[in-house]
Amino acid sequence: MRWWRRESGRARLPRGEGPWAWLSAGSVSLSLLLLALLLGLLVSRGLGHFWSADVALVTLQDGRQLAGRAVREAPLPGGSGRERLYRTGNRDLDGAIWDWVALTAIRDVDYPQELVVLERRRWSEFIGRLVALAPEAGPRLEGEAAWSALEERLLELEARREAIRELREQTILPLVRRLEREGESEATQALAMAEARVAELRASLAGASLVLESVSGKRLIQPLEEVVRARRPNAMTAFDKLVAWGQDVWRFLSEGPRAANTAGGVWPAIFGTILMVMLMSLLVTPFGVLAAVYLNEVAHQGRLTRLVRIGVRNLAGVPSIVYGVFGLGVFVYGIGGRLDSWFFEASLPSPTFGTGGLLWASLTLALLTLPVVIVATEEGLARIPHRQREGALALGATRLEMLTRVVLPMATPAMLTGVILAVARAAGEVAPLMLVGVAKLAPQVPVDGDFPFLHLERKFMHLGYHIFDAAFHGGDVQAAMPLIYATALLLVLVILMLNLTAIFLRHHLRSRHGTLSSY
Amino acid sequence: MKPSAPNLPMRQRLRQGRDRLATALITAGGIGVIAAVMGIAVFLVVEVMPLFWPAQSPGVGLETLWLPQDLAGLEAPAYRWQPTLGDDGGPLFSLTPLAWGTLEAAAWSLVIAVPLALGAAAHSALFMPRRLRARLRPTLELMEALPGVVIGFVAGLVLAPWLERHLGLALALLLLLPPGLLLAGGLWRQLPARLQQRLPLGWAALWLMPWLVMTWLLAHWLGPRLESLWFGGDLRSWLEITLGLDYANRNAVIVGMAMGFAVVPSIYALAEDALSGVPRSLAEGAQALGATRWQTLWRVMLPAASPGVLSAVMIGAGRAVGETMIVLMASGNTALMTANPLDGLRSLAASIAIELPEAAPGGTHYRLLLLAALLLFAFTFLVNTLAEVVRTRLRRRYRRLGGPS
Amino acid sequence: MPVTREARPAGGAFIDFDPQATSLEIRGFGLRYGDKPALHDLTLRVPRHRVTAFIGPSGCGKSTLLRALNRLHDLNEEVVQEGEIRLEGQDIHAPEVAVAELRRRVGMVFQAPNPFPMSIYDNVAFGLRLQGGLRKRRLDDIVEWALHSAALWDEVKDRLRASAWSLSGGQQQRLVIARTLAVGPEVLLLDEPASALDPISTLKVEELIRNLKASLTLVLVTHNMQQAARVSDYTAFLQNGELVEYAPTDTLFTNPRLRRTENYITGRMA
Questions:
Q1: Which CATH number fits the domain that encloses residue A497?
Q2: What is the rounded distance in angstroms from the CA atom of residue B343 to the CA atom of residue B208?
Q3: Complex prediction ipTM
Q4: Percent residues over pLDDT 90 in chain A
Q5: Are A397 and B315 in contact (CB under 8 A)?
Q6: Interface contact flag, A17 B292, Cβ < 8 Å
Q7: Within a domain: residue A10?
Q8: pLDDT category, B63, cuts 50, 70, 90?
Q9: pLDDT of residue C3
Q10: Mean pLDDT, rounded, of chain A
Q11: Which domains does chain C possess?
């Protein structure tokens, strides 16, 4: 009892620090533990999603069979015993993709090699057996032959889909836009030809179908064109799975979303995020540096400047949503509406710049991160010893020459740190974007081969908003969870990387500053 | 003999002209940029003004916004935020439940964050070796950089359902953590000196982690037993029946935990700055008199650094009030006026994010949401300015007391 | 050097020079920082191609005066100046004088060496590039000449591209002098140029100063009286922002006219 009081009389003081020391040490541990837990959760779930886990064939006591991947276990609501959640897929056959099974109800669990997992464009995945492959013409293939033919066919399909996509993006879309601009022209003809070609390719996709059977015995005719990929996880070696994992991660990074953002990849969101952040840094860097140079080098260093400096510093603490409101009110409704009525009257009432878009989002975020850049640059400028400036002036340099040749080069690492911190902050901000320009699904990325190549007025997708949207507006959140984890992991990785760069730069800057002030 | 450089009066004049031009441009640009940033406040005020001209927006005034209103079908006056359609057909605008929700969320997140952050700051300022501290800071800065949308997602879709199922475990954890830590301290005192050197107090933050995991496992075992012993097997229904507390899936406590996690790093960083900035001579004087390090903190350092610690908490509060995505995703967004921490809430920021894109520009709803933004702006700006003033005073005081160590 | 007349009989000795032999003329010059006066009514002439030293206790205004000579106070908005300073007869505050050009003609070397964070070569070429209009070959020539003049060439000729910060403190100070010489100044102001250096580097810099007076007017501020005695031809003693005594160095150090001066020189006053 009262062990921390006991030693007050002893000679070997002051080793005991009392209870608070331990509680405070515990709060550090707890914070770190929570951080580790969060990151661990994101990493394990985010990366685990792409692993083709084995598919279990579960035989229940009552003879019913089901096939699926075990997700987690939980105690039964009644209190005694536990139950296990299987992801069984087959939404079209069973109406759901989840199945809770009480552990006591399971008679047998097996992992037969022939179970296939088909990734489909609709109805999420199919888990069951492949009975036969029925091509457009010719005999049905069954058994192993069907499987190898399926793999071959899928590769072929992939190539054709790629061809269609290319045709659409390279030929049809530009033609359509030309038509919109110029009206009737020879483009009509070219367009018709291209569309015919697409229809032809599309027709060549259709035809073949698969005969599938779920483990509970329900049959299904699956058109082959709907199948994205097929795997037999139980027949794969660990190495195969690793290769498949790599492929799936790549698909996730390079493909567009499917099924209302609950499946597929996030490429448009990655692209949109990066493009928006790049535009933002292009805007924020010159303006931020300009303001910092003005405040630190040109402005009269009086009470007013000091007040302005505090004000700018505090703007960094103003909630991001307020900047979003400003962006919506001033950029979108104010400037955008004006621009529309001046230059885009033809397309009114549907707005061009009078609605959220890439430009307004970048501008809003630039405004949001301006204080970060100003503060960082000012700190860098203030840290440059006065004698460096005087040295330049004493050699006959004008103020501009002193700034551009001596002061700004020396402050570059500080500016860079500021810009990187700004980028890291902007990449994670979602709230203002909800007001000024993200889209749930943007079919066209804001960059293409059509003049002026960069379309500042278009809406764009964003990783952070993608998370929010998939988590709160999707139909089956449970089914989308793995994908959200993966997206969240990606976003966190990007931001952590940017922050680490900034920390490294700042460290580098400090150590250089150390040598500078040593004499 | 010296090879002389040519003297070019033309070029001389050119350089001068360029310098003047650049100075003018920098001045204009700098003032312009700063004015644009400061313009936010002006814009909000100008847009909100018409709200208080009776002709512009009938039915909106200070009383309707902030005081309970008599509503058809209700016995007592009530607060309602139903901007699109009210019970009697017209929209109902009462900002009180939103402001309440905002403050409630911020309060709960401070309840979680302040002990954690101040404890961590005290520990790292007092006990931690310099090497570990230099590592801890960037780690916590990374924690600060985690985007709100990710934290909100984890809170709303992972933590909330988990907590709903494991209320007993959470309660057991809450009860076990402090005694568990004290027990760790007690056991450490009994260790032989050699082992104590291997596990120094300065590194406790690291070697306590396995201990915390063990506490967790214990809570896992204890939780259900506790629940069946005290609460008849189900804490949630006990809460609802015995205490009359509704349990919403996404509630204020969840928001508090998530947002607390998010504001810990900023409070920590500022509080640690304030504590480690206390002149060393002060602390050494106390320790020379035989005070333990903790007593030194409590009696000497904390009184000296208290303004800095206070400003750290204020900046944390400012962040919590304005945070949007976490509240949006973890709170359920129900505009309620209830003190029950297990019920949902709706904050000003979340309302803006959800409703503003749909509100017609220039309308009453639109202007009200802008008023909400203005409130957020004014609150955070004031709090931050106050914190900044306090910090400046503190720095001056430290300089007087002998300069930062 | 022809001494024409003794001016200002009140109190101390004041040496004066023929306007023909004068490089810098300071007439009734005063300066204050806001409300705080720093210099009062200074009048003296600095002779061409000689070394003139300003000595005096800390805070007497000797550095302030030096900085006024190439208008470095322009940066500080609090500073109020009166009286005039003439370089070769022309008022340096006249509106038609470009401050950058003035600073080129009146070079300055500071207490602590302040090489820019660039290569040795770029440091020396910095001022020249600002003037512009030079071919690479000529630039090379001038850089080499400047480094020779600063007695640094032999030490750095093999590493002109190395960072200037890699040099020792004494070398850095000579580099700064070379950098200043390269733009071809008429006057070189030295603000305690050796106070941050070790004794050997100090000797090198002092030797350099003695060699430079063949082509330049030098003004040296120092708190080291031995240094002033070793290097300078004329010495001005300042106290509390006033000129107390101004005489040939030998005279001032061996036979000061005033008690104040004597006390300071013999170290009876801090």
A1: 1.10.3720.10
A2: 34
A3: 0.85
A4: 2
A5: no
A6: yes
A7: no
A8: low
A9: 45
A10: 78
A11: 22-266 (3.40.50.300)
Q: Find residue C237's DSSP bridge partners.
A: C55, C245
| Domain annotation covers residue A9 | no
Q: Do B3 and C141 touch (CB under 8 A)?
A: yes
B-chain residues near A499 (CB < 8 A): 141-142, 145
What value does the mean pLDDT take over residues C247-270? Answer: 79
Strand pairing partners for C238? C243
**The total number of residues written for chain C in this structure:** 270
The pLDDT tens digits for C34-83 are 888 888 888 888 888 889 999 888 878 888 888 888 888 877 778 888 88
On whether the CB atoms of residues B329 and A471 are closer than 8 A, the answer is yes
Same domain for A186 and A236?
no
- DSSP code of residue A66: E
Backbone angles phi, psi at A257, to 5 degrees: -75, 155
**Using a CB-CB distance cutoff of 8 angstroms, which residues of chain C are in contact with residue B16?**
98, 100
pLDDT in the model for residue C193: 84
Instruction: Tell me, yes or no, whether A154 lies in a domain.
Output: yes
Q: Under an 8 A CB cutoff, do A395 and C103 touch? A: yes
* Structural domain harbouring A109: 45-128+228-245
Closest among B76, A265, A397 to C123, alpha carbons compared: A397
Question: Is it the case that residue A517 has pLDDT exceeding 50?
Answer: no
How many domains in chain A? 3
- Judging contacts by C-beta atoms under 8 Å, the chain C residues touching residue A406 are 116
Q: Which partners does chain C have (≥3 C-beta pairs < 8 Å)?
A: A, B
Residues 3-32 of B with CB under 8 A from C: 3-8, 11-13, 15-16, 19
Query: Is the predicted pLDDT of residue A337 greater than 60, yes or no?
Result: yes
B19: nearest CA partner in chain C: C100
Residues 6+ apart with CB under 8 A from B210: none
Tokens for A65?
A: 């069979």
Q: In which band, very low, low, confident or very high, does the pLDDT at A313 lie, cut at 50, 70 and 90?
A: confident
Question: A486 and A349 in one domain?
Answer: yes
Q: Print burial letters for B61-80: b (CB count within 10 Å at least 16), e (below 16).
A: eeeebeebbebeeeeeeebb
Q: Where are the domains of chain B?
A: 7-52, 96-401
Work out the average pLDDT over A175-190: 69
Nearest Cα of chain A lies from the Cα of B91 at a distance, in angstroms, of 22
In a domain, A251, yes or no: no
Distance, in Å, from the CA atom of B380 to the CA atom of B373, rounded to the nearest integer, reads: 11
Global confidence as pTM: 0.81
Same domain, A232 and A153: no
Contact B36 A38 (CB under 8 A): no
On whether the CB atoms of residues A327 and A360 are closer than 8 A, the answer is: yes
Q: Do A174 and A318 sit in the same domain of this protein?
A: no
pLDDT band at B3 (very low <50, low <70, confident <90, very high): low
Q: Are residues A195 and A289 in the same domain?
A: no
What pLDDT was estimated at residue B332?
76
What average pLDDT does this structure show over A101-116? 80
| H helical segments located in A227-301 | 238-254, 267-293
The tens digit of pLDDT for each residue in B224-239 reads 788 777 777 777 777 7
Residues A66 and A185 in one domain: no
Within this chain, do residues A179 and A124 fall inside the same structural domain, yes or no?
A: no
Do A104 and A186 reside in the same domain of the chain? no
The single residue listed with the structure tokens 């792409």 is A50
Please give, rounded to a whole number of angstroms, the shortest distance from the CA of B114 to a CA of chain A: 10
Instruction: Give the residue, B305 or A347, on which the prediction is more confident.
Output: B305
Chain C nearest CA to A512, separation (Å): 11
Which DSSP string do the residues of C84-151 spell out, in sequence order? EEEETTEETTSTTS-HHHHHHHEEEE-SS----SSBHHHHHHHHHHHH----HHHHHHHHHHHHHHTT
Q: Per the CATH hierarchy, to which homologous superfamily does domain B96-401 belong?
A: MetI-like (1.10.3720.10)
Q: Chain B within 8 Å of C183 (Cβ-Cβ)?
A: yes
